[in-house]
Write a structure and sequence with these properties.
The complex is a heterodimer. Chain A is of the alpha/beta class. Chain A is 41% helix and 16% strand. In chain A, strands 1, 2, 3, 8 and 9 form a 5-stranded parallel β-sheet that branches. In chain A, strands 4-5-7-6 form a 4-stranded mixed β-sheet, with helices on both faces. In chain A, helix 8 packs parallel to helix 10. Chain B has 11 helices and 11 strands. In chain B, helix 5 packs across helix 6 and helix 8 runs parallel beside helix 10. The chains are: A alpha/beta, B alpha/beta. At the A-B interface, helix 8 of A face helix 2 and helix 10 of B.
Chain lengths: 270, 280
């Protein structure tokens, strides 16, 4: 990474979680009843188990929460904030931001920000686009800036964070890019959950863990930044939680600094 | 419109200096060209193309230097305009820049005059950056058209690497002009193993992500078979896809495997073209 890390650590590690309860299905279909209601699995089982796991390993995560889900599960979202994890913006009903009129998009940013602030007691510090592949509009980064966000995590054009520019001008914001191989949904999303009728291939837990270890090994040696994206509705299954625990344990055996997204952004904005 | 359909069947090929087979390395620096063309949006998910010229190409150039290899990089001219210094760097470090459309167009959906204009514009943009007009071409989206081969020959190109019909290069002659066709394939391409994301434009596609060494197994099996029949191994990488450190490690293992195989002529696209056109 192009910034020195606290305590001279060799690699920064960020664990991000997409709360994604029924807002995903509601956003697409105005229905939450399809596909075994898997959205509801996130707050009912996935999130509590993941919070226990993070607590056990004493690491903090960044949770991207659609505000519609926060309204329906305020206690669950409060619990995330109480455990000192970061809660960040992720749309209202998991919208495709590339398909919204500017006024509509602005309203969603403001409404979601207000809801998350009221529930958690603190304003979100950043944003990640929702919907499959995180499409955004030409206005999205500007709205993030208007909300005072210090990071966005919607892009895939780098392996490490970088300062954001809007129309060539530097702004007070950092991009924290994500990638498909470090996103659990690439290997475990059930059919239709993306709303696109997609059938994504399933991989065995051990296979996923090995792939992530290989990715970490190369990024640890060559770069110093490892950014994981986890969906509690998918990773929260009893057969898959060991993948998450496995990678956290593996990361902890290295010289890493576990950071939240705003801690990463602050490294670049200081 | 049908694609070129008159390629001869070749079953053997005499490589120089008693080599049994040949291998070359090529890269398609597609960037966000298709996202720009079909969606007009290179943000968010669509920014994955920029990863190629922005992040991956320097890593690839260093890797090629470490192994003393020269490669061909096919670049849509719009990507060259977006990253002119990067494209110049590829050229300055001794690699060939080939044409690849302006925005990775499917030429079979365009009129002949539109296609000609794209070739003209792309050639000018690339030669303004590198100082020389491109002589090699790989067709971007869609089939290779007879029309395209004719336009290429009329405009000084001597190489197309667009067909997948054979394991051997071939020479196409027309009206006193010659062009070398260098075959490629999906199996020796990185895209099917690693792309991972779902795209619905220009066509719906989803390719599951493999572990790097799994892709390596496919490549090595295919290389070994091509070596056995004395053919030409043409590796095709997309910087946006192969550029992750984990995947470059698998690519480097492939390079080592090829280097350790006795009797392989490891050359570049120019080596093949010059051989067929009896130059150099």
């Amino acid at each position: 990474m192009k910034r020195p890390l606290p305590n001279g650590a060799k690699c920064a590690v960020t664990l991000s979680f997409e709360y994604d309860a029924e807002s995903v299905e509601w956003g697409y279909w105005k229905s939450i009843s399809g596909g075994f209601d898997i959205g509801g699995f996130s707050p009912s089982f996935g999130i509590p188990r993941i919070l226990e796991l993070l607590d056990k390993h004493d690491v903090k995560g960044t949770f991207f929460v659609p505000a519609w889900d926060a309204e329906r599960y305020p206690d669950s979202v409060k619990e995330i904030a109480r455990a000192m994890h970061e809660v960040a913006a992720h749309g209202y009903v998991h919208e495709d931001f590339s398909q919204l009129a500017p006024a509509e998009e602005k309203e969603i940013f403001e409404k979601s920000h207000k809801i998350l602030t009221e529930i958690t007691g603190a304003p979100p510090q950043g944003f990640r686009a929702a919907a499959y592949g995180r499409p955004i509009s030409s206005k999205t980064l500007g709205f993030c800036q208007d909300m005072g966000y210090i990071y966005d995590s919607s892009f895939m054009d780098d392996d490490e964070p970088y300062p954001v520019t809007i129309e060539g001008k530097p702004v007070n914001m950092v991009e924290i890019p994500w990638s498909w191989p470090l996103n659990d949904i690439s290997f475990m999303s059930p059919p239709f959950s993306s709303g696109m009728g997609l059938v994504l291939p399933q991989r065995k837990p051990q296979w996923i863990l090995e792939l992530w270890k290989e990715e970490f090994d190369s990024l640890y040696e060559e770069l110093g930044f490892f950014n994981l994206v986890v969906h509690p509705r998918d990773m929260g299954r009893v057969s898959r939680l060991p993948i998450l625990e496995g990678i956290i344990s593996y990361l902890k055996r290295h010289d890493v600094w576990f950071a939240t997204y705003s801690q990463i952004a602050e490294l670049y904005l200081r | 419109m049908p694609s070129v359909g008159d390629a001869r069947v070749i079953e053997s090929f005499a490589w120089p200096n008693g080599y049994k087979s040949a291998a070359i390395f090529t890269f398609d620096v597609d960037g966000c060209a298709e996202q720009q063309l079909y969606e007009g949006n290179t943000l968010g998910h669509n920014s994955a193309g920029d990863y190629g010229p922005k992040v991956a190409v320097p890593r690839i150039l260093d890797l090629l230097d470490r192994h003393d290899l020269k490669a061909a990089f096919f670049v849509p001219a719009w990507v060259a305009q977006r990253f002119p210094e990067r494209i110049k760097e590829i050229h300055d470090r001794g690699h060939e820049i080939g044409a690849h459309g302006y925005l990775h167009e499917n030429f079979s959906k365009l009129s002949e005059s539109d296609e000609k204009e794209i070739h003209r514009k792309s050639s000018k943009i690339i030669s303004d950056i590198t100082g020389i007009p491109p002589r090699a071409f790989r067709t971007p989206g869609g089939p290779l058209l007879k029309r395209t081969m004719r336009i290429l020959m009329e405009n000084g190109y001597d190489c197309s690497s667009s067909s997948g019909k054979s394991y051997f290069p071939s020479k196409v002659e027309s009206e006193g002009k010659q062009i070398v066709e260098i075959p490629g394939s999906w199996i020796t391409d990185d895209f099917p193993y690693f792309w991972g994301g779902y795209d619905d434009k220009p066509v719906p596609m989803f390719m599951p992500i493999s572990r790097p060494d799994d892709a390596l197994e496919y490549w090595i099996a295919e290389f070994d078979g091509i070596h056995e029949i004395g053919g030409l191994f043409v590796h095709i990488n997309h910087p946006r896809v192969i550029g992750r450190f984990s995947r470059l490690r698998a690519f480097e293992k492939l390079i080592r495997h090829i280097k350790e195989t006795p009797g392989v002529w490891i050359t570049d696209l120019r080596g093949i073209v010059d051989l067929l056109l009896k130059k150099g």
